[in-house]
Amino acid sequence: MPRLLFLYLIKRVAVTAAVIQFALCVPVVLSYLLGSLSAAAVRGGLVWPALVGVAPTIAYVALPMAVGVATALEFSRMASEGMIAVLYALRLSVWAVCRPALILASVLVGAGYMLSNFIAPQSAGNMQDVLNVVRNSLNHRMLDPARFYTFESGAKTLYLERWETPDIAVNLFLRQISADTGQEQTVTAARAEFRRNESGVIVALTKGSIQTRSIFSNDVRITNFDQYAMALPMQGSGGLPKRSWRGVFELPAPEFLAQYQVVRSDRRLLAEWTTEAAMRVGVPLLTLGHALLAMALVLAFGNITGRRGTGGSLFIVAIPAAHILFLVALQSLLRADARFAFVLALLLLAEIFYSVFLIGRLNYGPARAGRLPAGGAPAPAGEGYAAPWA
Q1: Which of 248, 243, 274 is nearest to 340 (CA)?
Q2: What is the reported pLDDT for 373?
Q3: Rg for the chain (alpha carbons), in Å?
């Protein structure tokens, strides 16, 4: 294939895939963020960490569908405009016509593996940190007035009457229990200013009192103050608060593989690990499988003579249907039993080999498109670049 034509076809498929990828990812990301983050979380500046956390995962999951649909659209356009028939007339084989899309799909498979095994696991923790902040109210700008909040498993209880500014509250109440000292403290203040540092939040209290009571006796001590400062376990300027757990989906590839020896004896944990492994290994490979399937369907069953037919839209719909079916089967079957991984692997290989079979039959069949009779004479009616037999 001429170099200029090769680059043209790659560019057409790549641009279409990029547009479809953007169209798929943006609504999914926005809907996920809107469903996960409250208005208070948006005010607290948690949108960007959440976006960074969820975007890479959605990107590599949507990539196979984008490439498959883009390939189907481009080959359907080429068929309807008679371009494929012209390429056959230029003595190009079926594989030569498919080569630009195959090379692009292969490169994007590598990009998908980079996303699924390195970038997405590193970013997934950000989303879980955001959810941890949202669920435990660990950002002071998310606190609603006239409502009680608990922290550190109920050891601290916080209440504020109203906000004067986003960082200054009026009439604060704080109750905290220390098991180490055996004391219960009740702190009240007329004004409280929340100041972030690298590790958390410092609350500067003005004109208040501290009531200290021993949990082992009835002794009470009351102290008044004009200025007082105390630390709260909230989100600081240095980053989101750390969680006490780490999911398997957050592990980079080497640690993820090493985790197999830990979970292999537990059926439930093994199912979770296998599900994540299928997402990391199988989903990127679908990029090549969907591209092959799109080309095989259009070339084998489409009308390549330039006359428009009704099959083009069906071929385009087949790619999202196959992709969604694989993802649903992956998430439902593998979480039930890890042994279903062999079934999913067979489905993926079946898609690839069936597509290769269809393209190979077109390329080496009796009506090999792109071959003119010896001497270059026009082919008799019915023997030119007729639609390949199916």
Answers
A1: 274
A2: 42
A3: 31
